[in-house]
Design a protein that fits this description.
about 200 residues; alpha+beta; 4-stranded mixed beta sheet; 8 helices; Lysozyme; about 45% helix; globular
C-alpha cells in the first residue's frame, strides 16, 4: 500500500459550551496540512464530521465495554502516540471490532482486539495476534497507513479497515455498499463520539 506524507491527527478535547454541546465532532485541515478535531467548533474553518445525537437513556452494554477497554489504555495511548492517532479512535475500533476480547476470532479469521487478518498481522510482524500489545500496535499502524492513504477521511479509513482498501479504491474512493461495512462505519463513529464526549466532561 502506498502512503502519502504523514499528517498529524489532533483531537481538541475542550470543555463543552452549552450553546455548542450538540455531541457532534467537527474537523478542519489547517495551512500546514494538520487535521484538527473538536466537539467545540470555535473556529470558522470547522465543518461537521460526525453529527451528534440525543443522549441514550440506557446503554449498559456499551458502558461495560468502555469500562473493559480501560484495561488496555496504557497500550492504546502508546500505540496512538507512536502513530499520530487519537487514542479515542483506536479505542473505538477495539470496542467495535472485538468487544475488547483479546481472544476474539471472526468467521473470516480476523484475530484479537483489533481483529487483524492473518496477512495484515504478517505485514506488521505480529507473532501472536492474541497478544494485546502486538495487536494494538499493529492495528494502529494499519490505521495510520489508511489515514495517510485517504487523507484522514475517517469514513473511508474505517471502511477500508473493515472491507479492505481495494474495496474502497475500486469504488472511486467511496464507502462500499456492503451491509457489514455500512453498519460498521457509523458504529465506530458513534463510539468515537461518545469517547470524545467523555473526555470533554471528564
Amino acid at each position: 500500500m502506498r502512503a502519502t506524507t504523514p499528517t498529524l491527527i489532533i483531537l481538541c478535547a475542550l470543555p463543552l459550551a452549552p450553546a455548542m454541546a450538540d455531541g457532534g465532532i467537527y474537523s478542519f485541515t489547517d495551512e500546514h496540512g494538520t487535521v484538527h478535531y473538536s466537539n467545540v467548533p470555535d473556529d470558522s474553518r470547522y465543518r461537521l464530521l460526525i453529527a451528534g445525537t440525543s443522549p441514550s437513556t440506557g446503554a449498559p452494554d456499551m458502558k461495560v465495554l468502555l469500562q473493559r477497554s480501560q484495561a488496555y489504555m496504557p497500550i492504546i495511548k502508546h500505540a496512538a502516540q507512536a502513530n499520530r492517532l487519537d487514542p479515542a479512535l483506536v479505542r473505538a475500533v477495539i470496542v467495535a471490532e472485538s468487544a475488547c476480547d483479546p481472544e476474539a476470532i471472526s468467521k473470516r479469521g480476523a484475530r484479537g482486539l483489533m481483529q487483524l487478518m492473518p496477512e495484515t498481522a504478517r505485514q506488521y510482524g505480529v507473532r501472536n495476534a492474541f497478544d494485546p500489545e502486538q495487536n494494538i500496535h499493529a492495528g494502529s499502524r494499519y490505521l495510520r497507513e489508511l489515514s495517510d492513504r485517504y487523507q484522514n477521511d475517517l469514513q473511508l479509513v474505517l471502511a477500508a479497515y473493515n472491507a479492505g482498501p481495494a474495496a474502497v479504491d475500486s469504488r472511486g474512493r467511496h464507502v462500499p455498499q456492503f451491509r457489514e461495512t455500512l453498519d460498521y462505519v457509523p458504529k465506530v463513529l458513534r463510539i468515537y463520539r461518545r469517547l470524545v464526549e467523555m473526555t470533554s466532561v471528564g
